[in-house]
DNA sequence: CATTTTGAACCGTCAGAGTC
DNA sequence: GACTCTGACGGTTCAAAATG
């Protein structure tokens, strides 16, 4: 019989890819998910009898990420438990990794041009102009992007410093935080928390990624739902803030390839250094107020007196929508 | 109800870096 | 030099909502 053209194969991708996207954006962006899962399973299994202090702080941190992964991906725990071979588990991890990676590259791609709008004053001209789809000329080669990327405490106005940053004679490590993280792009040496992670640029990057690109400067004229809604996200997470800042930082830079183990951009260290601060127990008070400020900015309708959203209440909302 | 707008997800291709 | 792996990039598909 005749085959009338290529049948649209349904071949829907595994839902794990979809959840992997959210995991990367909001829970942990730069990690080897296969290792995360393997180590997590071992700790849940054969090492479960060991006392807490048998684990390094590193391992404990990894384990809490693993638990967050299980919690955020419905059905994952069951699928892992019913896996019978190493290969099967590897395949599940690969789906998640694929989601996280493609979400990240989609975000870098879309922020690459969108960031230009954030830098352009509403008035009109950006001088000198920045190309929307090309990165050369950004970073320390440009007055504006260079000024934003310049580490807090380093004087961008100093001609010599400017020169050395441009040539690469002076390099900036990931844990030297750029001035664009601070509100009004001002750093107060006597109060390092002042304005930290309160900048409009990071907020804009966050909105672009999580709410929707159009919600950045307009009142969300939402048509299609954004990432936060799709994944039932109603509160910001420390990782989602770090992720937005990392994406913004990369968009400002002149590097064209996002590579977490590249020492020039040093994105992984930057990301982790922010996460580390936000996880620091001694900073809990400051971090709490930072998070509630963010929630107020991003999710005003959920802020304050709303109960934490449980899986059940989220489900109820979804059902009510239908 | 048809059209338009919006944005997430996806696809095929390509180039750079590393490996054998 | 052939091969592989990763991510960028342009373009496309699909669904939801607004608009006509």
List keywords for this structure.
mainly alpha, 322 residues, DUF6698, DNA-binding, disordered C terminus, disordered N terminus, 13 helices
Describe the fold and architecture.
The structure is a single chain. 52% of the residues lie in helices and 0% in strands. It is mostly helical and 322 residues long. It has two domains: 15-100, no CATH class; 103-303, no CATH class. Helix 2 (33-44) packs across helix 5. Residues 1-11 and 303-322 have low confidence and may be disordered. The protein binds a DNA duplex (20 and 20 nucleotides) through residues 13, 17-18, 21, 101-106, 108-110, 112, 133, 212-214, 221-227, 230, 256-259.
* Tertiary shape: globular
Q: N- to C-terminal separation?
A: 42 Å
Order of helix and strand elements from N to C terminus: HHHHHHHHHHHHH
What is the tally of beta strands?
0
Count of separate DSSP helical elements: 13
Nearest-integer average pLDDT: 80
Domain count: the total is: 2
User: What percent of the residues sit in helical stretches (DSSP H or I)?
Assistant: 40-55%
Spans of at least 5 consecutive residues whose pLDDT stays below 50 are 1-11, 303-322
Q: What about the largest sheet?
A: none
Q: Write down the Rg.
A: 22 Å
Coarse structural class: mainly alpha
- Portion in beta strands: under 5%
Pfam families: DUF6698
